[in-house]
Amino acid sequence: MEFRVKRIMEFKKYLIFIIVIFVLLSCKEDNSNINENDKIVARLNEVYIVTKKDLNQYVKDWKYDKRFRVKAEAYKNALKGLIRDRLRVFDFFERRLNENQDLMGEIRRNINFELINTFFDKNFVNEYANEKTALEVYKQMDKEVICIDIILKIPEKPTKEAFDSLKAIALKIETGLTENYDIQSIIRHNSLKNILLNTERKITWSETMSDPIANVIFRLQKGFTRVIESVDGTHIVKVLDIKKIKLEPFEKIKDEIVSHLQNGFYNEYNNAYDEFRNGLIDKKTIKWNKNGLDQIVKWSSEDESFYGGPYKDTIEKTISNGNNFEILSYKKGSVDLKEYLRLLEEIINTDPNLVLTSVSAKELITDALYDNNVVEAAKENGLEEKLVNPYTQNNRIADRLLYLYNQSVIEGSIPEATPEVIYRFYEDHKDSIFYQLKIAYIYARIYSDSAKAAADINEIKKGTPFEKVSNSWLVKMFIRERDGTCKAYKTYGGDYLAEAAVSLSLNEYAGPIEYTDSTNGKQYAVIKCFQIQPEKQLTFDEVKGKRIDEEFKNYYRQKITEEVDARLKKKYSIEIMENVLSETIASQ
In 255-277, which positions are buried (b, 16+ CB within 10 angstroms) versus exposed (e)? Predict the structure, then answer.
């Protein structure tokens, strides 16, 4: 009995081992077909994922590729920045700041704009372009159609007789193609001059989304002929051959297919959306209050910058004085002045210099009503909860939430800058913040050819001003730290010229200076110092006012930021896939 139990246990262990191996192999196979952009670079709080696509976009948006000369540094620092931003969004909801209606009101227009876009994509674009339709298309994409395409161009001033003649000739040519007549003899026989001939046109699926003629041809069988009317003329086509072509795995190209479908069905889903949007209000039931509409027009005509800011105070004052007049009514409701203000704050994105007429005011308000109803439809579909949450995939919403977080948690925590606090701040930091280091401001021309740099400096030595040797140069700044080290200051390009720049006197030049750039190799520079900030201890009188106020805010902003980010890193889990990060860097 014990022997049997032991054998059963061993068999179970073996079975579990086989299952684990199978799962691992399956995962490996799935990963080999996954879209490169969808590979996970990092996972935050065990739920939110950062993909290669996310990281590449963040690098581009925040110009990390410009801020760091070394690619690896650019991507690693960008990932840190992306993680930092996302953790702050998590904390935004943890602090329940999303329940502060006044705070959320600052980005309500942004949220509504994204609700409309998401509703449009989900209910209209996705009807034509989604993963399911992309897969159906993928099954038909593995071919290339080779055909004869003859185009009879439409005359400049076509008549009914000309069209009838063109149609008759097209049918003759189609008959000739069907019976394998020589094409050139057909053209000569019919004395055709205004004709385009492509004897071996090749069509793949991607063309069918932008070319209606290609769309028809792609669906024909080998040997079939067809006459197709088009805006550029009458096409007579015959399919000569259909070749099989090898496709990438579906997972790798599905986004590309979806993109083609979106372009190809653009008119269809836009027309469907317009029909839905316009059906939300029965325009025939709209009744305008002429006096209310005239007042709206009058405000903007009296002040060309009315919608740049004054509109809010003017409208709120009018309402508080008991004059909340009606502007329009319709079957399902009305728009009074209070509702108009809400539409301006939450729906309408107006030009600050907008000046309204009676006609344009009506268009503005009715458009806002249509969009507002789409927003309500989106909310009824639960889209706001999907967009405004800690793990939102909508980067524009996340960016606006991050803005609110920074304003509330970081900027809102900076101490009040009273005169006493400011003076104490100076005393505490005069030896660090208010000790002015030497900064050299220089003009620089950089060459990869030493002879050009030498010619440049020779011209300067002969008396030609630096600025007139050539019309272009770079402006760079270099700082000397207290320990004597010199480095670039607030400018890109490395520290290569720091020592030479800081050693120059005002208006002094130097060069050619040889150095090796990590990206461009050996370089030669000619430089001139045009401004120097001297090293010295600044007094309170020298810094009081705007300078010390900014330093005070910057100091506490940095201090609070570091404390917040350190706390968030401890609070939320962070997992970085170093191998995928390395792949992402290497692929750039």
Answer: eebbebbbebbeeebeebbeebb
Q: What is the DSSP string of 285-310?
A: G-EE-HHHHHHHHHHHHH-TTGGGTH
Residues 435-480 have pLDDT tens digits of 999 999 999 999 999 999 999 999 999 999 999 988 889 999 999 9
pLDDT at 301 over 80: yes
pLDDT band of residue 33 (cuts 50, 70, 90) is low
Let me know if residue 418 belongs to a domain.
yes
Percentage with pLDDT > 70 across the chain: 93
Range of the domain at 545: 414-429+541-571
Whether 189 maps to a domain, the answer reads yes
In a domain, 48, yes or no: no
Q: Are 333 and 369 in contact (CB under 8 A)?
A: no
Residue range 19-44: average pLDDT? 61
Task: State the helix-helix crossing angle for 108-120 and 337-346, rounded to 10 degrees.
Answer: 70
Amino acid at 327: I
pTM of the model: 0.76
Position 567, amino acid: R
Pair 355, 422 in one domain: no
Domain count, the chain: 5
Residue 183: Cβ within 10 Å count:
17
